[in-house]
Amino acid sequence: MTLDELREALADEEEEVRYRALRLSQSGLEADTPGLSALLVEALADPAWRVRKLAGQRLVELEDEDAFDAMVRVMADEDDAAARNAAADALVLAAGAAVPALLRAFGGDDADQAKFVIDVLGDIGDPRAVPRLVEALALEDPNLRAASAEALGKIGGRDSADALIGLLDGDDLLLTVSALESLVRMRMAVPFSVLTPLAERRLLRRPVLRLLTRCEGEQVLETIVEAFSDSSRGTREVAVTAFGEWRRRHDLDRVIAAELLARSDETALVSAVDDALGSSDLAVQNGALEVLASRALPQMLDEVLETAADERLEELALEALLRMGPAVSAELLACAPDLPPAARRVAYGALSRIGDERAVAPLVAALDEGDDSMRAEAARALGELGDARAVGPLSRLLGRANRELARAVVEALAQLARSEREPVLEACRERLGSEEPLRIADVCRLLGEVGTLAELPLLEVTLPHPDARVRQAAISAVGHLAGADALDALRRALADESAEVRSAATRALVEEVGHEAVEALRVAAGDDDAQVASLAIQGLGQLRDLESAELLLERVADGRSAHAPAVALAALEALDRLDAPLLGAALLRGAAHPEAEVVKEAIAIASRSGTPGATEMLLEAARHEAWDVRRAAALGLAELGDADALGPVQELLAAERDEMVAAALESALRSLEARKA
């Protein structure tokens, strides 16, 4: 494409013709083609926005100072707003490259152009513009002064902040507002002594309140609370939001916050919080709940519960209800069944933590109502209340098919056992006679949590149960209660037909028995089930059993076939943890494994351990058929840093066709060259 062809196409009535011509010019015309930049500047006035946008992008690609100057001049065109905006967008896209041209145009007589220049400099955010923008704060045109203050806020930095803070004691209201808003944008800490007099001016109060959140001292919070009585709802919402942000930022104790709020006008406080809770802004609602979590306002119960329907506000809503305390228990009990799920969850949590025993009966009733998730919440609440009346109803829910509910019930009964141990144990004994396997399994889990060696015979009776779920729960509980004394039972469980039971026994051997379990773990390491074998292998590594190194080497690969990836990975990790002499041989076997994830683990270990032969192994892996393995090997060579690999890496790079692998090899090459130098 020639320049004349582009000019002709840009004059065409069809938008698509003009757009395609610009696209073609990207590859068809060199950046230094005479007249190209002038033609592209003309295209900034095209009727179609996408043509204007592409013309601006092409101008930026030229990286031509004259083109930048031309775009700045376009911003002075009062008759074509579209062209001005297109030029401004392109200059922002050019970023730092456009700053010299913008600074050259700074201070011209055209106020509209000057405003564009200032705005663009702010959007670019280059610190080189700060000195000129600071000078512009003294211009006669108030709009330019305000624009300069806004631009400084976008750029940020200490010099910008100092200049903006210096404006706060002036008489120019527009400039002061702009300076405050910019300081808010910068999240700048402004001295309290500077902000205090400004808080008296209603038009400045909102940005001042936002800035106060970064000031230290309880007197700051007093100033924020005073704004709760402002006549403007918007200002009150900003004040409530600022209260919450200040308390969280400075971690003020709620007792101190409560004392401060107690000195404020309750009518104004209730009105401000009520408005804030009704806001659609999450930050405003957060602030209101922070106020209520510090000062008890029982009359706000309905509003808090309405807010609690939003799961993002549950935690703060709960704190607010707890601050209200027993004064709202009766109302909570009455309304909880009709609340939405999230709010009901909060209500149940509050009732349990308030500790009102009147909540036991309705919470017990809730165990038979609604869906399983609500029953689970009621169970948790009863666990926290710690009342013996809940033991029977909770124990009847053991073994439920919904495992979330079953877990909540087991946890609640375990919590109840802290104060009501005998009733819980008695319920366990009764439920062990059940014919439902899931119920027996849950009882075993519960006994494992709350029982002692005295309950061991109860669990041992269930070990030969025909249902694997029961045997799994029972062997875990026996291991937890008996520890090393359960070694024989755990060893027998390793022969169970169920892999889940064998896995449970293996976990218990590692976690509850320890070093005395090494022989049993060596047996489990040869299990046909990958999960059982992996758990045992991990345990041998965790127990630092060096005598098992040969066995672990075999579990990477036995010379005839590669083991399951999970087993091989566990064996490599265990040998790495042991730092055994056989690690090098294991890594070679891992690198030959057919599963890429195992190869990559071997690469990772070799890279950081630097075992003998690591470089050769990584170079071989860099020729692997899988690109991700080759890339991992390249990164490993860079980490290993063996300068002798420089030549082979150069050869690998020359032959590599995958871009990501090539990039990793280039990185390795630079690293090795630096090491050699």
Explain what the structure shows.
It is built from 43 helices and no strands. The chain has 677 residues and is an all-alpha fold.
Q: Figure out the total of helices.
A: 43
Number of strands: 0
**Overall shape:** flat
Strand content: under 5%
Mean pLDDT across all amino acids: 90
Residues in helix, %: 55-70%
Give a topology summary.
Elements: H1 3-10, H2 15-28, H3 36-43, H4 49-62, H5 65-74, H6 81-94, H7 99-105, H8 111-124, H9 130-136, H10 142-155, H11 158-165, H12 173-185, H13 192-198, H14 205-212, H15 218-226, H16 233-250, H17 254-262, H18 266-277, H19 282-294, H20 301-307, H21 314-324, H22 329-335, H23 341-354, H24 360-366, H25 372-385, H26 391-395, H27 403-416, H28 421-431, H29 437-450, H30 456-462, H31 468-482, H32 487-493, H33 499-513, H34 518-524, H35 530-542, H36 549-556, H37 565-578, H38 583-591, H39 596-609, H40 614-621, H41 627-640, H42 646-655, H43 659-676
Helix pairs in contact: 1-2, 2-4, 3-4, 4-6, 5-6, 5-7, 6-8, 7-8, 8-10, 9-10, 10-12, 12-14, 13-14, 14-16, 16-18, 16-19, 18-19, 19-21, 20-21, 21-23, 23-25, 24-25, 25-27, 27-29, 28-29, 29-31, 30-31, 31-33, 32-33, 33-34, 33-35, 34-35, 35-37, 36-37, 36-38, 37-38, 37-39, 38-39, 39-40, 39-41, ...
